[in-house]
Amino acid sequence: MKPVNVGLLGIGTVGGGTYTVLTRNAAEIARRAGRPIRIAAVADRNPERAREITQNACKLTDDAFSVVRDPEIDVVVELIGGHGIARELALEAIRHGKHVVTANKALLAAYGNEIFAAAREKGVIVAFEAAVAGGIPIIKALREGLAANRIEWVAGIINGTTNFILSEMRDKGLPFIEVLREAQRLGYAEADPAFDILGIDAAHKATLIASIAFGIPIQLDRAYVEGITDLEAIDLKYAEQLGYRVKLLALTRRRADGVELRVHPTLVPARCLIANVEGAMNAVLVKADAVGATLYYGKGAGAEPTASAVIADLVDVARAATTDPHNRVPHLAFQSDQLHDLPILPIAEAETAFYLRLAVEDKPGALADITRLLADQSISIDAILQREPEAGEGKTDVIILTHVCREKQINAAMSGLQGLAAVTERVTRLRLETLEG
Questions:
Q1: What residues contact 109, with CB distance under 8 A and at least 6 apart?
Q2: pLDDT tens digits, residue range 43-53?
Q3: In the predicted model, what is the mean pLDDT of residues 213-226?
Q4: What is the largest distance, in Å, between two alpha-carbon atoms of the chain?
Q5: HSE-up of 77 (CA within 13 Å, CB side)?
Q6: Which residues contact 137 (CB under 8 A, 6 or more apart)?
Q7: Whether residue 205 lies in the annotated active site
């Protein structure tokens, strides 16, 4: 049977891994796909690197547009990254009737609605398993494996860099900036780590997850995003004493009035499996009505784990390319004319519990004033931890865990707490999710 000819755009870390795994496991992959899948052309700005990896076994060029316009190419694999030239190349490939496989979460989070609409019009597939959580097949699980279910919420540790940093901060009690430098030295963090530590990378992935889980258009601009740059090691220590661990959590939840879509540092009960995901690993927890809670764990980045997802998409394309486009699995799990118009809720309407740390003068009545302000906003207290002040210190840390309330309630309470004469420093607030179920 005629092989599937692939045009590979970018042969860096993931592109090189894709070429290596596809070559190494060619026979096994062909058995699964029903015909051979071969890389027929590679476009890269570094022809020497491309030549070294491919050993001139395919066509090499530095002109990516020549590949997407090549009539011999069936599928374009876009591994360039970003959403400038990548968007142009993806749309040009679709215009030329080619299927597209991409690991580019930034591209799809920003322009996915446009790209998927163009693909539907041309009857081609856009596959993107590798765009979320590397080698973990979470897109396929949500889109196909859980198709019988009404998804209630999805919570994930989907950025390995920040998870490594938080694990090190907790274990070693070091400040954020020191651990970040160590992460950069070890290669876990980029020279410019902004996309990771500010939560942007996780937000791209969470936006795609929300669309697939709930059948809504991609709406990156409505996501709430908060990174880990302001976290202090002392809060990770207090969380541990209270039975929690702090993770950069991406969470999306369906409610009657809309969808929560947020990324931020979060206290998670230490007994939960997801709280014990350490280092650079990823995990996604899905709560659905029929199956209950399911957990997906594995490497969220790296050459071969991500290549595994890219090649899985290529196998799906090989299997589905000759089927009626209307009978294929929809890009966002739901038929395009069945997407909901459920709004993404503003963060003020989010419902969660909270961790508060207050530096308080050690004098009578201070704690009573704090609890009164919380009660005024109908915020119920779950637990209080008060550090014993050292001799002559004159102030202490008071840690409060609340029950679930709306974010706007805690915002109002925070304003009052900050104005108390007994509160000597900025109040620290972190969100808390029990992830029950």
A1: 203, 204, 205, 207, 208, 218, 220
A2: 999 989 999 99
A3: 97
A4: 83
A5: 37
A6: 129, 296, 309, 312
A7: yes
Q: What is the CATH number for 378?
A: 3.30.70.260
Domain assignment present for residue 271? The answer is yes
Do 105 and 153 fall within a single domain? no
Q: C-alpha 168: how far from its chain's center?
A: 20
CA dihedral 160, 165, 170, 172 (to 10 degrees): 130
Q: Is there a domain that residue 261 lies in?
A: yes
pLDDT confidence of residue 245: 98
Same domain flag for 152 and 225: yes
**Which of 205, 247, 287, 395 is the catalytic position?**
205
Task: Tell me what the pLDDT averaged over the chain comes to.
Answer: 95
Token representation of residue 343:
């709004």
The C-alpha atoms of residue 219 and residue 42 are separated, in whole angstroms, by 33
Rounded distance between C-alpha atoms, residue 117 and residue 113, angstroms: 6
* Confidence (pTM): 0.95
Count H helices and E strands in the chain, helices first: 15, 17
Instruction: Please tell me the distance from the alpha carbon of residue 248 to that of residue 163, in angstroms, as a whole number.
Output: 7
Quote the pLDDT of residue 338: 84
**Per the structure, how many domains does the chain have?**
3
